Amino acid sequence: MTDITTSGDLAGRAALVTGASLGIGYAIAAELLRRGASVTITGRKPEQLATAVDTLVADAAGGDKGRVLGIAGNAGSAQSREEAVTRTVEAFGSLDILINNAGINPVYGPLMNADLDAVRKIFDVNVVAALGFVQLAHKAWMGEHGGSVVNIASVGGLRSTGVIAAYGASKAALIRLTEELAAELGPAIRVNAVAPAVVKTKFATALYEADEEGVAAAYPLKRLGEPEDVASVVGFLVSDAAGWVTGETVRIDGGALASGKLG
């Protein structure tokens, strides 16, 4: 059987994965590289980003430094977004795949206790910046040549949790944004989203570190997600195998919502 992660089905395509120094973004970048794409990753911390680039080159790009580009910057900055898109097209000659993974969650708890400036920042990075990246990718390449966009949402955008209320509201907006963009940009550009539950990353540590076994026990599959669980689905969504899939949000949650135990 052919290993799809090394099948080369994305060869000749260029991808931009935001917020990809660690965790889910890094795993997605590695997945796309193994499938043959060239990949730009962004991150806020230059040293961490440089380490991620070196590791991706060695582990996923077969040592080919020309297939991995790292661009430091904040997704919430219009200048950083412009640089990432422009340099990707300059380096690889196209921008066929956009993964809006960058996201923040500086506040926990119910909305009645939420600092409004923090809520504005969450929506600016998690929603407005994602739209900004799509607009730039459309202008720079996809509008004329087509492409595929995947937004990294959350099960918190599908059902209230009471724990990550502002973040969940922003991800609900991102899911709606996905549907609006899919309707607006078809047929040449497909736009989908994935909605993970708790994945074992530094970003989500606060949600499981006190009792990982207890948190995992609530899931029908009895484990938390791994970044690779999300990456493999994203790899499918940007491939030709998903050529008739757009406007979709795929839950990757170990059965959490099916069991009714989220929140």
Automatic annotation (TrEMBL):
SUPFAM superfamilies: NAD(P)-binding Rossmann-fold domains. This is SDR family oxidoreductase. InterPro entries: NAD(P)-bd_dom_sf, Sc_DH/Rdtase_CS, SDR_fam. Signal peptide: none annotated. The lineage of its organism: Bacteria, Bacillati, Actinomycetota, Actinomycetes, Pseudonocardiales. Pfam families: adh_short_C2 (PF13561). Gene3D superfamilies: NAD(P)-binding Rossmann-like Domain. Belongs to the short-chain dehydrogenases/reductases (SDR) family. Transmembrane segments: none annotated. PROSITE patterns: ADH_SHORT.
